[in-house]
Amino acid sequence: MNKEWYLIVDGVPRKGAWNMAVDDHLFHSLGDNPSTSLRFYQWERPTVSLGYSQSAQRAVNLEFCRKNGIDIVRRMTGGKLVLHHQEVTYSICSSDAAVFSEKLMDSYRMISEALICGLERMGIRCSLAGETPSFYARGRLPCFSHPARDEIEVEGKKIVGSAQKRTKNRFIQHGSIPLIKEEKLLRAVSLMDQEESILNMTSLSELRGEGISFDLIVDRLIAGFSEYFQVEFCPKAFSDEEMDSIRKIQKERYSNPEWNFGKGVSIFYE
Q1: 143 classed as catalytic
Q2: Which of 65, 93, 126, 143 is an active site residue?
């Protein structure tokens, strides 16, 4: 009999602070018993997310974002700057070491392979990337400038950017799958050096030659995860108590300038 995972599909675009608070809640709600949840969501407006250890002042064009109403939020996961807007975002939280092992790269690769199963159902032929380029690993290029090891690429162009946080056998991984390639806006929000001009990224619409709906993408990705991990899905709705927990996390962290920009930084939004 197949394992059963929880499934959360949020068809309504939400603010970045809310999206990150939900993922945070799901991760910290993992108990000792093996459990896995898969979530898909969207973004209400253009939002920059920073890796946990990144400096906002060194990675983001704060003035451009302020003038153009672009939100900024710090993720609980590592990695580099991501511009979220017209995309499908996934997150997976699990405490099932029997499936994922306790090694970050093992689970990262497996999730990428499951995503590939879903993308192939959309007619997209893709593969795992090789070693991470050293200049990308060390520099301040945004996430979608180059594929990193075991991320998903199509002819050298990144189609999915992901990041993971792990505590022993518990982890959260979330990632961005662009519907369209917003290269101009990505350049504007990031502090890329002028000589770092190449963005090896692509999008679902570019690869398919036509647009594709959120619902259809999610349907194909769910099927890919189900096939790869041999699991069935049980829809999950948040209780009133869980919604209160998410709102508290949102207020204390992801809507808090000290979390997003660091202590002593002036409030970014009035």
Answers
A1: yes
A2: 143
